[in-house]
Amino acid sequence: MKPKQRSEIICRCNNVNRETIEKCIRDGAKTLNEIFDQTSAGVGPCGGSCRRKLGPMLEHYLTTGTFPEKLTTDMTGKKPGGSQAC
Ligand code: FES
To answer: What are the phi and psi torsion angles at 22 (to 5°)?
Structure first.
């Protein structure tokens, strides 16, 4: 993973970057509440818009043991908008 991606800010409200989230999950967080408690991500004044990224990150790690190269709010592989290009 490129260094720039690791410093990507996931939670803008509380300025929490991807590296911090990944470390929290690698260190044993298995629920979103544990990530919220340990990093303060997801509990900012916006109401938790970053949870759309936190959830898929956690699910991907718990399923595969790795983090996705690129973060999206939908890890199913579907294209945004529901249209499928030929
Ligand atoms: S961006 Fe994470 S709580 Fe607002």
So the answer is: -65, -40
